[in-house]
Model the fold of this input.
Amino acid sequence: MQHQLTRRSFLAGLGIAPAAAAVGHIDWLSQQPSHRVSLTGTAEIFGRFFGAAVQINQIQSDEKLHEAVLRDCTYLTPEIHLKWDAVEPRQGAYSFSYMDRLVSFASSHKFKIRGHTLLWDESTPRWAKERLVETQDWRLVRKHISKVMSRYGHAIEEWDVINEPIDANGKDGLRENVFLRTFGPAYVANALRDARSIAPQAKLFINDYGFEYDNPFEERRRQSFLKLLRRIVSECAPLDGVGLQAHLGLGRGKIEPSVLHSFLQKIADLGLEIVITELDVKETDFSAPVEERDQWVADEARGFLDIALEQSAMKGVVAWGLSDRHSWLSPGNSTGAGTTSATIRDKSMLNRGLPYDADFRPKLLYWTLHDALARRRSLSGINLNRGARRSAA
Ligand code: XIL
Done:
């Protein structure tokens, strides 16, 4: 049986008239806790979680972000603080203060943290790359994994051990990065084994992007990813799940339901969990009216989420930020990194690919997320106890 929940019925169920909840007019915090519309509330009722990538300095300096994080998230992903170049910018000179602050914030508000990420070529500091090439010594990698996991093992249950290992054009479908060059394809399984031995209880993930669209390039990426996952599973290397980054993009083509569905099913058939780890939508046309742009963004996300959330191995959704104010995406910056919203005066030039606009007004994408998190899940999968507990709170 399919549960169809529209924004209207969802709000009605919470005792909120849709008109009162018109975008921008809802008075969130005056609602009773049981009547509060929140993304995590919807996700939890339907047996999933919702979270966002954050920076603790932004949470602590921006009241609106702070409020939105408390309201909408159960999971937080450190957008930057846990990466190798953030924790050890120079060899042996550790810098854990931001991550420590995030962990203490998370523990006082009972958030869970996704451990993003242990090995990512792009966030490996130059000194470490040089040492790896020079010494070919795996102990440097092991030391990094061990240092980070043993410090945060008590607070983090789920880790992106490897980030972005796939390149459809690479040998064996693997990205030509410092780890592959130095240690060969075995680096993936070796890192997973080290992670398991250091934090035996932790869930271990591989996280990557570019699997959503129906085009030959992403098809090759999907095949390369499945090949890697099958190899890992057949070698009995420890792997619990995969993260699909889901940085969607307008103009990237079509999302074909049957293709996406079968890809996700093949991952689930390997016994792996799936999490959408970095959801956002990159825009291409900033000149159109805002209402139209928001509609395009929401439609794009819906096309993906409606299929992705049909899959019961899908455990939750993490957005790569909550508000356009903090989005890593900005026009004219193809890598996404570098320019921050604070440096852009003209708000129409901000990418509108996250649930809230730069003033923390919920956009169509916010409601699309609610709908998608609530729709198409069989009632048997709904966690009624959890919902009941929340309402009673
Ligand atoms: C990005 C952050 O959002 C930026 O602030 C930082 O400058 C670079 O990294 N895929 C990932 C994330 O796995 O870690 C990246 O995050 C976005 C792409």
